[in-house]
Amino acid sequence: MPDPYGAFIPPAKPHIGEEEIEAAVAVLRSGMVVQGPEVAAFEDEFSAVSGTDHCVAVNSGTSALHLSLLAMGIGPGDEVIVPSFSFAASANAVRLVGADPVFADIEAGSFCIDPAHVEALIGPKTAAIMPVHLYGHPADMTRLTAIAERHGLAILEDACQAHGAAVDGRPVGSFGKAGTFSFYPTKNMHSLEGGIVSTDDAQFARTLRLLRNQGMEQRYANEIVGMNMRMTDVSAAIGRVQLRSLGTWTDQRRANAARLDAGIKTVAVPPVAPGAHHIYHQYTVRVEGDRDGALEQLKAAGVGSAVYYPTPIHRLRPFAHIEADLPVTDRAAAEVLSIPVHPSLSESDLDRVIDAVNALEV
Ligand SMILES: *Cc1c(COP(=O)(O)O)cnc(C)c1O
């Protein structure tokens, strides 16, 4: 069907504006390009989003997860309970420190890890629980925190999709021992590549700072074995510019989601749990029928959509040997479809998305 109104509506639209470009150029001209004043300021400013005393910037969200697990002392012989319905980075980080992921199912409504299943999976090797705030909807931190306390376990929050999401007004990234955020271009804010770890524990933050920089605080006085996971000041400067718009962009995403909620009649729109502040990194519907056909029909109508994630982690080759029976996850992987909700959508774009979804034949 020809598109009578305008161009193809992309499922995500990373923003790189003049301010970002100028901030990057200013850093390049300054000559202080790696883990300098911009990184320090970005860490300080992002603490307001995570609601924690400390933030430690690194070169990606995956690095943030990896370093957090190392700093928690998790390694061979340990198990970490993770959802299978997530981006592979969540489980990759567990394997990279030599520990074993144990896959929990999700709740059908929030798409986030199911606390009851988490508790059933806890055993003598369990070292930590890693909830993922998928699509920007917070996991049930009230129940997960109670379970972790009852069993003496640490929580590491994968908040890579959830900048500013909250439960009963408390921001994600502030519930666990640590939280991790990604600044990849398609996330709600970006720094080209980048990530941050949030924590209230000063000693833990110091360990992270050592680990990201070869184990050094003072040059050539290496205290522990570490890596190079530093953020550049170019990234931090771009992140600082983006951070100034995060609140406005989140409001716009939430307003767009409300429009979609009200307009869509043909498929199940994403429910929001009581007390949850959803920041709509993705707006994800369920298509009970020919989901992949729906994706093609939307494309033909000029509306970009995407499936996050078509294959749950426990069915990916590196993890397929791990025993897991996850019916809610399998069903979600077969039904989910994320449609545009990003802040660049115009009123007429939103109408086109709604009309295209309501015209689906599945
Ligand atoms: C994006 C993402 C990551 C990894 O972040 P990168 O910055 O791409 O390394 C980890 N977990 C989840 C859930 C993500 O969406």
TrEMBL record:
Its cofactor is pyridoxal 5'-phosphate. One of its GO terms (biological process) is polysaccharide biosynthetic process. Keywords: Pyridoxal phosphate. One of its GO terms (molecular function) is pyridoxal phosphate binding. It comes from the Bacteria. The active site is at 187 (proton acceptor). The modification N6-(pyridoxal phosphate)lysine is found at residue 187. InterPro entries: DegT/StrS_aminotransferase (IPR000653), PyrdxlP-dep_Trfase (IPR015424), PyrdxlP-dep_Trfase_major (IPR015421), PyrdxlP-dep_Trfase_small (IPR015422). Belongs to the DegT/DnrJ/EryC1 family. This is dTDP-4-amino-4,6-dideoxygalactose transaminase. It comes from Glycomyces sambucus.
